[in-house]
């Protein structure tokens, strides 16, 4: 389990330190305070030296696969770097994981297209990587399909990305429109769930298919039924013509496509599925309260905590909703008060334009809220 993390040079955080982390960690604060960036930093730590998911989530916020222009990619890289005045760019993610100190130092050498993107970098001394594909070690350009037929595109190097882990260094060339990044196992299996993950049809189908293959779909339906009692089953039933149909939900005696239901059903299925599939992992969920009606939050919170514990999943969750925190504290205190001791409420504030964090246990916050109605945001 991750019990502490230190982040240097990532987005708005010059030096961010989180200690005494628990099984379930809420990051509480107002909009645009940096909550999502903390989730991304935790996810980046889990990625280790695996650059592909690092590019997709912490760097481009799930847009990497659709980015086809090198200047866009360069701008995304600039957005994650706190100190953009010194080359090469530096990021650092270190933490205490299962009692061991782990450190990942990222050194990013941008290609010379940075000076086209922002001419001010011509005045900064630094070694720019050539934008040609000579560094890629391949003789043939990539072949892509288009409406006019096949076409050849020479990849452009956007940056050389080096990641050092306890003395072991891996170097990758980040290119546009595609990357030749090699496959490297992540340091820790992790899943990042944003506000829109549950409405991505391909992702939901992938979750369903994996649950079905692992014989876990019945367990997830059982958990879903605890919050939405009318839901009896989830299946993928082909249409009569043999064509593929969307995932369907059996409510009472009628099957309807999952997208016909509200965000609460769709998102809870997605989260439950992720917890079941990503056992013994870290799961980061942005704006956990989104899509859940206040009347459903109490039961949702109870089952979220128990299901995470059952599957040995460490959760990091963001919210700005104090009512949701109160519902969570009430629910887990009634269900199993020991969960409060393994819960952390991390409040993020800006003080004198600098991020400030305060960490309290679930027990401390529950007492402060129930006895004194103290404001903790």
Summarize the structure.
The chain is α+β, with helices and mostly antiparallel strands. Helices cover 33% and strands 30% of the residues.
Structure characterization notes:
The chain has 377 residues and is of the alpha+beta class. The protein folds into two domains: 49-182, no CATH class; 191-372, Rossmann fold. Helices cover 33% and strands 30% of the residues. It is built from eleven helices and 17 strands. It has helices at 35-47, 51-59, 70-80, 113-117, 201-213, 217-227, 263-277, 294-310, 322-335, 338-341, 362-372, and strands at residues 2-10, 13-18, 24-28, 89-97, 100-110, 142-146, 149-153, 156-165, 168-176, 190-193, 231-235, 248-251, 254-257, 282-285, 314-319, 343-351, 354-361. The strands form four sheets. A six-stranded antiparallel beta sheet has the order 2-1-4-5-8-9. Strands 10-14-15-3-16-17 form a six-stranded mixed beta sheet, with helices on both faces. β12 and β13 form a beta hairpin. α6 (217-227) packs across α7. It is globular. It starts with a strand and ends in a 5-residue tail after the last helix. 38% of the residues are buried. The model is unreliable at 135-141 (pLDDT under 50).
């Amino acid at each position: 389990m991750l019990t502490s993390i230190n982040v240097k040079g990532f987005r708005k955080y010059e030096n961010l330190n989180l200690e005494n982390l628990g099984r379930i960690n809420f990051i509480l604060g107002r909009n645009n305070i940096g909550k999502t960036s903390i989730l991304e930093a935790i996810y980046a730590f889990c990625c280790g030296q695996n650059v592909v998911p690092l590019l997709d989530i912490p760097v481009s916020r799930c847009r990497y696969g659709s980015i086809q222009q090198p200047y866009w990619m360069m701008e995304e890289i600039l957005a994650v770097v706190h100190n953009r005045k010194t080359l090469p760019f530096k990021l650092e993610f270190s933490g205490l994981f299962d009692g061991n100190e782990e450190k990942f130092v990222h050194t990013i050498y941008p290609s010379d297209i940075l000076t086209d993107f922002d001419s001010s970098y011509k005045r900064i001394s630094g070694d720019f990587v050539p934008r040609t594909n000579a560094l890629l070690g391949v003789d043939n350009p990539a072949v892509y399909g288009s409406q006019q037929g096949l076409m050849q595109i020479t990849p452009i190097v956007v940056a050389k990305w080096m990641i050092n882990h306890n003395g072991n260094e891996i170097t990758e060339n980040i290119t546009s429109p595609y990357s030749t990044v090699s496959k490297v196992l992540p340091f820790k299996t992790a899943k990042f769930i944003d506000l829109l993950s549950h409405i991505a049809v391909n992702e939901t189908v992938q979750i369903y298919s994996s649950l079905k293959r692992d014989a876990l779909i019945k367990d997830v339906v059982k958990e879903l039924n605890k919050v939405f009692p009318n839901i009896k089953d989830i299946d993928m039933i082909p249409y009569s013509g043999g064509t593929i149909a969307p995932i369907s939900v059996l409510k009472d005696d009628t099957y309807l496509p999952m997208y016909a239901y509200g965000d609460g059903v769709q998102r809870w299925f997605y989260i439950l599925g992720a917890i079941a599939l990503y056992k013994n992992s870290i799961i980061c969920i942005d704006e956990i309260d989104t899509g859940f009606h206040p009347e459903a939050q109490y039961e949702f919170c109870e089952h979220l905590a128990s299901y995470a514990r059952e599957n040995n999943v460490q959760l990091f969750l963001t919210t700005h909703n104090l009512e949701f925190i109160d519902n969570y504290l009430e629910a887990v205190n009634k269900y199993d008060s020991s969960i409060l001791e393994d819960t952390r409420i991390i409040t993020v504030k800006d003080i004198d334009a600098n991020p400030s964090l305060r960490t309290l246990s679930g027990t401390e916050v529950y007492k402060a809220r129930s006895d004194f109605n103290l404001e903790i945001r």
